[in-house]
Amino acid sequence: MNKVIECVPNFSEGIDMDIIGQIADDIKGVDGVKLLNVDPGKATNRTVITFAGEPAAVVEAAFRAIKKAGELIDMSTQKGEHPRMGATDVCPLIPIANISMEETTAYATQLAKRVGEELRIPVYLYEYAQPDKSRNNLSIIRAGEYEGFFEKIKLPQWKPDFGPAENDVKRGATVIGARNFLIAYNINLATTSVPVANAISADVRESGKVMKENGVVLRDANGKAKTIPGSLKYVKAIGWYIEEYGAAQVSMNLTNIEATPIHIVFDEVCKRAEVHGTRVTGSELIGLIPLKAMLDAGKYFLSKQGLSLDVEETELIAAAIRMMGLDELAPFNPQERIIEYVLKG
Amino acid sequence: MNKVIECVPNFSEGIDMDIIGQIADDIKGVDGVKLLNVDPGKATNRTVITFAGEPAAVVEAAFRAIKKAGELIDMSTQKGEHPRMGATDVCPLIPIANISMEETTAYATQLAKRVGEELRIPVYLYEYAQPDKSRNNLSIIRAGEYEGFFEKIKLPQWKPDFGPAENDVKRGATVIGARNFLIAYNINLATTSVPVANAISADVRESGKVMKENGVVLRDANGKAKTIPGSLKYVKAIGWYIEEYGAAQVSMNLTNIEATPIHIVFDEVCKRAEVHGTRVTGSELIGLIPLKAMLDAGKYFLSKQGLSLDVEETELIAAAIRMMGLDELAPFNPQERIIEYVLKG
């Protein structure tokens, strides 16, 4: 079984399609890597590129892209709505198949070392790749942004993990690390009511809901609102209404699908929807999903019905699509939505 | 508020479209009546016509249709797969809006009396219009069919309620009565498994499921299989798989939606689907539905969510469509599916 990792670098250029195209071409040029998505944002002046493949190839492609971004993007004149600190602002590696987070972290560290030593760009490690808990969070590392980093980088506690302890005028500094696969997942409700969707969201999301007594928010000694945690760890959720669908949704980010798989999220939202008097009609997955998540979901739903698990992979996937209603709003083509299939195709 | 009744006569001609057309034309010719459907069957050699309107007009149209069928259909040569005893085989009146079953029964009796006295056709009353429980069931009345009625009609216990106690060679005898509105209603499941759909059906249908111990059917002293009744009265249900939809359904007949409304049926099937490890994705209503059933459903589902019932009729209907997923397989246009709207349109 091939090891697969994904890489989702964010570059500080969202307008000049020539620059974006050159960076993407460098990624595509590496054997064993498949470019999955290029998503430029004009207002943010930032482009998110997604690619995946076997680990060494992904690291090589990431290195080339970071190098090219440093040559083409000038941070001393860059402006945009999104916080940023470098030409390559952040570059996470994500385990997809047959690879542990520990191994992925080793690849991230290897990439960071090359970027620091060969390209002489200051690099900070983050998330799983950063053992120091005081500096493993992206927004804390990035605080001060490009303009503030000329000072911040001199502080002993903000010495980069690799590369010079001096902000690069043209390229800034960058953040490299390993993190979990993120899934943006929306569950469709048989209601148009945003309050109902929000009540369900508050029941399930890890951050939970604010405690109230007679309509007044309860606070602790420090004035912080007391909360009741929701039932699902690693889940962020809000309720909203989508005019186009004529339906409210529980809109979620799943930040650790190993610990809290998508099928568990689906089932729990179904239960809470029932408590709030409505019903789940289907769901909507944004972007791609690892094969294992779909197979696990298929097995889970067939088991629940007492049906045989001794079936083809395609049937497990079909059961997952059917039970979660992934095709309610638009067709769900496994060849286009499951990362491993896209890499093969 | 206008009183509305529906009439669904079955005529023993399903092949000769000229005859069917002449009968339908007589119905259409009556002011205050709307022809809703003409459904001829070749193999059964039988046509089911549906029309509705204000009660006196419906009775007049039914009378004219029965008269015309008697003139055009010759039972002495008629053949077909469906059991039948007369040119007009059966003619039920059904309360739809602002009218009780008692009043509807009175109209049915008035129609039967006219048919017996003016047309000289033997008429049996059935269902709510027949107080004698030994002869209120259509299939018991019809037993023996046209060929057997020359003898059966002479028996004291089978003396017709109206008309001569002699079978009419050309027109046979007929059955007129009052019954509840019937709804054919299918609930869609997120599974392809017929056993799962059948297990849900057996849980909810009035006839329930056969009791077994170690795989052996339990029987009473007379050898009759013991059963555990299902949770819903006036509901017949089976599970099946529809290739076209790629989904299993619980396929139902609801025979008394006053006692067991459609929204209660929907909710109960949702609950049992969950117990059997699957999920309801939507539902499918065959034919038309009275407005009250849709409004009651809308109110029920909004109440469950704690939402205001002080909304427009269209919004109640939209909530019912949304919660029951009536538009999952095909668009559900209230103007074409709600009887009162069709009558107005």
UniProtKB/TrEMBL annotation, chains A, B:
<dbReference type="GO" id="GO:0030409">
    <property type="term" value="F:glutamate formimidoyltransferase activity"/>
</dbReference>
<keyword id="KW-0290">Folate-binding</keyword>
<dbReference type="InterPro" id="IPR013802">
    <property type="entry name" value="Formiminotransferase_C"/>
</dbReference>
<dbReference type="InterPro" id="IPR051623">
    <property type="entry name" value="FTCD"/>
</dbReference>
<dbReference type="InterPro" id="IPR004227">
    <property type="entry name" value="Formiminotransferase_cat"/>
</dbReference>
<dbReference type="InterPro" id="IPR037064">
    <property type="entry name" value="Formiminotransferase_N_sf"/>
</dbReference>
<keyword id="KW-0369">Histidine metabolism</keyword>
<dbReference type="GO" id="GO:0005542">
    <property type="term" value="F:folic acid binding"/>
</dbReference>
<keyword id="KW-0963">Cytoplasm</keyword>
<feature type="domain" description="Formiminotransferase N-terminal subdomain">
    <location>
        <begin position="3"/>
        <end position="180"/>
    </location>
</feature>
<keyword id="KW-0808">Transferase</keyword>
<dbReference type="InterPro" id="IPR012886">
    <property type="entry name" value="Formiminotransferase_N"/>
</dbReference>
<protein>
    <recommendedName>
        <fullName>glutamate formimidoyltransferase</fullName>
        <ecNumber>2.1.2.5</ecNumber>
    </recommendedName>
</protein>
<dbReference type="GO" id="GO:0019556">
    <property type="term" value="P:L-histidine catabolic process to glutamate and formamide"/>
</dbReference>
<dbReference type="InterPro" id="IPR022384">
    <property type="entry name" value="FormiminoTrfase_cat_dom_sf"/>
</dbReference>
<dbReference type="GO" id="GO:0019557">
    <property type="term" value="P:L-histidine catabolic process to glutamate and formate"/>
</dbReference>
<comment type="pathway">
    <text>Amino-acid degradation; L-histidine degradation into L-glutamate; L-glutamate from N-formimidoyl-L-glutamate (transferase route): step 1/1.</text>
</comment>
<dbReference type="Pfam" id="PF07837">
    <property type="entry name" value="FTCD_N"/>
</dbReference>
<feature type="domain" description="Formiminotransferase C-terminal subdomain">
    <location>
        <begin position="181"/>
        <end position="342"/>
    </location>
</feature>
<dbReference type="InterPro" id="IPR037070">
    <property type="entry name" value="Formiminotransferase_C_sf"/>
</dbReference>
<dbReference type="Pfam" id="PF02971">
    <property type="entry name" value="FTCD"/>
</dbReference>
<dbReference type="GO" id="GO:0005737">
    <property type="term" value="C:cytoplasm"/>
</dbReference>
